[in-house]
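COURSE: Structural Biology Practicum
ASSIGNMENT: Worksheet 4, Part C
STUDENT ID: 0417
INSTRUCTIONS: Below are two proteins. For each, the amino acid sequence is given first, followed by its structure token string. Answer the questions at the end about the second protein only.

PROTEIN I
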Amino acid sequence: MTNLANQQNELQKGLKTRHIAMISIGGVIGGGLYVGSGTIISSAGPSAILSYLLAGLVVVLVMRMLAEMAVVNPDSGSFSTYAHQAIGPWAGFTIGWLYWFNWVIIMAIEATLLGTMVHDWFPSIPMSIASLSFPLIMTVTNIYSVKTYGEFEYWLAFAKVAAIVTFLCLGTAMILGFVPGFESPGVSNILGNGGFFPKGILPVLLSVIFITFSLSGSEVAAIAAGESENPERNITKAMNSVVWRILLFFVGSVTILVILIPQTAADLLKAPYANVFDMAGLPAAAEFMNIVIFISLLSILNSGLYTSSRMLYSLAKKGDAPDVLSKVNKKGIPIWALMTSVIFIYVCTMFRFVSPDKLFVFLANSSGGVTMIMYIFIAVSHLRLRRKMEKENPNALKVKMWLFPHLTYVTIIILFSIFVAQAFIDGMRLQFLLSSLVTGLVIGSYFLFYRKKQVPSTKKEKKLEKAQ
């Protein structure tokens, strides 16, 4: 009876390999790529290619560390669980709650953007009503079964990937002069207007900071793999694909933009992807890209509900959240964790309409630095767990970080530098201060309220700790 009860209170392995593969491939493709790339090119010029390459390299290194730990111990709490094991319970508590908080704010922002788009298409529908409808729609895809979430996300991600691959093929054809009515600019947009570094190296480095924050999403595959048929194989495949995903989707598409659109064409860079389709003479280019962005926002909202509910579930299992959040329904869905996330999304979304200039801005800025904090926790956790694993069970290391420990140390220094650099950038200073404040409050709340309430490890957790 006890075993049956435990099985009924566990997540189900309903995700297939193709689900994990597409979730990992589409995870980094969001609105930030379609819109933010134009801003980066405007500030750095053709050297934006280098900015995306450097930022992508940082993310690749972090994901390699996460893959190494996830293959040894696939867990729905992912880096929160690893921080708990490597640094201490306070670390797992801190990064778990910060990550959940970050996703809630992101989903509130995505919901309002979706509502704005619907209102633009159908003015008779109030933006507030449209915005509040989408979290409910995505809840339906998440609440039935993890397989339903995986299937829905598979097709959303497929649409995103199809759109970016179409862009890459079209852009390449335009550069090679294969598109009728369009004259290829060759390398004139790269060598002209001040050359590759028109404003020096500083905008390149500043752009790396902005881009790194927008490249989150790859870690979702590590969380989802814990509910897949073969976690070890799926995590390895998903994380190994991070390299070509970033090279192809980010660096590749930005390279095409740099070649086709002059850095001085501010109007074209406001919606660069749509304008490339328009330059090729394709009808309804803007409408096509709006649909792609709409799908991307839906995908982020869908994945955000899944990821935030699993993080709450994992926190509850470790005693870092109310025990009721660890309860699952007959389909293996952490129903109370999911509904808690939905409720807070609604609250934050309402702030967008009730107090857009105060409360909502405060929340958005206080969660803005969480991605970098998460990366730092992953790197430090990897450093400690890898050393422990090499002593106790080196055969378990089937995926290894390159040039350990030197590259891990270098990555930690880079990540910490990027986080601190926010304090010296006018547009990011408030984000740095509020993110640091919220992090301090979360750490303080652990020692005030949760330190004495830690539940003992389950037999399963003890076995995992011994294995590591």
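PROTEIN II
(use this one for the questions)
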Amino acid sequence: MTANPILLPKKYARIIEQFSKKENLSLDDALNFSYHSEIYRLISEGVSDLHCMSDEYLTEELIVEYKKKS
């Protein structure tokens, strides 16, 4: 299943905003990390239909990746 190209950027925006708030990062820092993350790559490539997962789940996965790299 491929993600709707119009809806996917909105999903990214919601995830980045939640990530920014939960990790007390500026939106710029959250955006920069997110777009270079493994989670972003997997979602954008359509791996395992990750785009179908909830925003909360994907935010938590992004936080786990962030903490591993920090």
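ANSWER KEY EXCERPT:
Q1: The helical segments are 7-22, 27-35, 38-44, 55-69.
Q2: The CA atoms of residues 5 and 55 lie 17 Å apart.
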